Amino acid sequence: MTKNWIITGASSGIGRALTEAALAAGDCVVAAMRRPERIADLLTTYPDALLAVRHDVRDTASAAHLVAGAVERFGAIDLLVNNGGVGQIGAAEEIDDRQLRDMLDQHLFGPAALVRAVLPGMREQGKGTIVQISSQGGRVSFPGAGSYSAGKFALEGWSEALAGEVEPFGIRVLIVEPSRFRTGFNAPDVLKLATPSKTYGPLLAAVRADMLAVDGKQEGDPARAADIIRSLVDAESAPLRVPLGREAVRRLATAHRRGLEELDKIAALSESADFPGVPESVRPV
Questions:
Q1: Are 212 and 204 in contact, with CB atoms under 8 Å apart?
Q2: pLDDT beyond 90 at 219
Q3: Residue 51: phi, psi to the nearest 5?
Q4: What domains does the chain contain, in order, with CATH numbers?
Q5: pLDDT tens for residues 262-280?
Q6: Three-class DSSP labels, the chain
Q7: pLDDT tens string 130-183
Q8: Which of 77, 85, 96, 282 has minimal Cβ neighbours within 10 Å of its Cβ?
Q9: What pLDDT, in 10s, does the model give residues 2-38?
């Protein structure tokens, strides 16, 4: 059965790989990106199944228009993949309000606007899948990645609540957490670097150098990632969160083990903050 997709950030990396995989499977795709000309080859190969749309995920006001155009062209939307986004490196003191808000616009407000736009149609048809391309940086962070992780942490928290809200309507949410994949993410003209300060420049010099040096050498294969994502959206059930890549599995496992160890050490002290004799709250969900 043919499925209809909306995929943001579809011009390269995982977004393009997913677009190619969906089209090859006979599905229809609305590919949203800033530079639609970058998928001219796919438009030539799949003129009837592919619609390329110029779209900046930060432009939340145009989200409803994008979805309406997709429905007009192909019909009801089965899958939304929020993949568009960029990285940013800089210490907390080096990142100004504008730069921090940009990460939230890219990774929270933009995806949220598209989700709100597709939900009425998905509810009406009683099915649908929302794929949020987050990052291992959506659950763990490191010096220099605070602003990027702020956006991804926010996306994951919002999406976790969303999953419980839409499940009764037959709609699924999948949060994908890639490690390093061979995309344009680390390219010098894509990765955003805050101006180094005297205070934090030496501390983050290695981080900045590493983020740029790995461009084109990342171990993650976007095509393999696309195959995994497709297999999960087609499966009867799937976990809410899916790390992709060895580094993501290792980093997340290490962080969770450390977190549990720290919680065990401080549990008694933490629990002592409650009023004595008052029973623990029971929540509805």
A1: no
A2: no
A3: -120, 120
A4: 4-245 (3.40.50.720)
A5: 999 999 999 999 999 999 9
A6: CCCEEEEECCCCHHHHHHHHHHHHCCCEEEEEECCHHHHHHHHHHCCCCEEEEECCCCCHHHHHHHHHHHHHHHCCCCEEEECCCCCEECCCCCCCHHHHHHHHHHHHHHHHHHHHHHHHHHHHHCCEEEEEECCHHHCCCCCCCHHHHHHHHHHHHHHHHHHHHHHHHCEEEEEEEECCECCCCCCCCCCEECCCCCCCHHHHHHHHHHHHHCCCCCCECHHHHHHHHHHHHHCCCCCCEEEECHHHHHHHHHHHHHHHHHHHHHHHHHHCCCCCCCCCCCCCC
A7: 999 999 999 999 999 999 999 999 999 999 999 999 999 999 999 999 998 888
A8: 282
A9: 999 999 999 999 999 999 999 999 999 999 999 999 9
CA distance 119 to 123: 6
Query: Among all chains, which residue has been given the structure tokens 């949020």?
Result: 132
- The residues annotated as belonging to the active site are 134, 148, 152
